[in-house]
Amino acid sequence: MTTRTLREYLADPKGDGNPAPRELASLIEAMSDSCRTISYLVSRGALADVLGSAGTGNVQGEEQKQLDVLANDELMAMAKSTGVVAAAASEEEDDARAITPGAPYLLLFDPLDGSSNIEVNVSIGTIFSILPAKAGENAFLQSGRNQAAAGYCVYGPQTTLVLTLGQGVAAFTMDPPTGQFVQTGANIRIPEKTKEFAINMSNMRHWADPVRAYIDECLAGDAGPRAKNFNMRWIASMVADVHRVLTRGGVFMYPWDKREPGKPGKLRLMYEANPMSLLVEQAGGRSFDGTQQILDIQPTGLHQRVSVMLGSKEEVERLEALHSA
Ligand code: AHG
Ligand code: MN
Ligand code: MN
User: Fold this and answer.
1) Sign (positive/negative) of CA torsion 46, 75, 154, 202?
2) Residue 280 Cα distances to 10, 155, 244, angstroms
3) Distance of CA 1 from the midpoint of ligand 1 (Å)
4) Which residues are 185's β-sheet partners?
5) What is the pLDDT of residues 112-148, one digit of tens each?
6) CA 265 to centroid of ligand 2, rounded, Å
7) Is the dihedral of CA 76, 174, 131, 123 positive or negative?
8) How many CA atoms lie within 13 A of 209 on its CB side?
9) What percent of the chain clears pLDDT 70, i.e. is strictly above it?
């Protein structure tokens, strides 16, 4: 395994002697600095008095935790300090913020994913998406295919940054004594065939028929049409569930359901689904919303939600077949 640092990786990400675009590299390095800061806060938990509610709500009507707010503020300050972010948008803020006029990139983030797991010492993370800057009010409403880079940092037993610049997926583990992100994964590929699914089963009675049919097939095991036994995992931090899928395969689903039929799903397209979908596609997987590939969705709103099914190619293709049956 290579022992390149993130900085060294960005100086030659494809191994052909060509560096990543300078301003993009500086933004990703700054992002990794913020992830180190957030990781430190997360690791200290109660000792830093950062657990629990912030006593406020966000634009989605969700309760904000102290760490949601701290991570958001850290990332917004970072976006400003880089000088390469024209505007930034966060899951935790009502509107996008104009940052540096004329700068080349737009930054979007879910500052702290898996908020319900903060107090129980279970993995959480930060998800980010970088788009090319555009003029006009709807500059952010670009499809996921336009992303210049996307990634996440999972704060788990290790702090791991997973990144794509649109040419494969690489992983970097933070080395606590130095704080350096050191490359620990290159050209990550999701196994095409797997036997693991992730979905919140408590919503089963609300699912659409094709989702129900897919999980029924999985549960039928080797006696059913899939002729294999499946295992199930649900961490309830998308970042940790997707990290497992990228590492050893499987499918992650947070599909539309009938609880609130007018709501397309729980997860957010711009802060969660698009960056994760780019990573998954770059690792050879697929990502589907029930009608199309998630990266092909033309966004209509910064905070729009979406039905999400992503992971190993064979599993997502089975879901796609059931949705078109
Ligand atoms: P966030 O903490 O950013 O609001 O996201 C939480 C999301 C996602 O990480 C996770 O997969 C899902 O919510 C869990 O939802 P349930 O509690 O409904 O299972
Ligand atoms: Mn989230
Ligand atoms: Mn969040």
Assistant:
1) positive
2) 20, 19, 11
3) 33
4) 171
5) 999 999 999 999 999 999 999 998 889 999 999 999 9
6) 13
7) negative
8) 5
9) 99
Q: Which ligand 1 atom minimizes the distance to the CA of 113?
A: 3
CA distance 38 to 282: 26
Range of the domain at 128: 6-185
What is the whole-number distance in angstroms between the Cα of residue 92 and the centre of ligand 1? 14
Does one domain contain both 153 and 50? Answer: yes
Most informative mutation of 238, 268, 308 for ligand 1 (most atoms within 8 A of CB): 238
The domain boundary, picked from 185, 211, 240, lies at 185
Q: Are residues 51 and 168 in the same domain?
A: yes
> 63-65 and 169-175 as β-strands: parallel, antiparallel, unpaired?
unpaired
What spacing in Å lies between the alpha carbon of 289 and ligand 1's midpoint?
17
SS3 272: helix
pLDDT at 1 over 90: no
Coil, helix or strand at residue 105:
strand
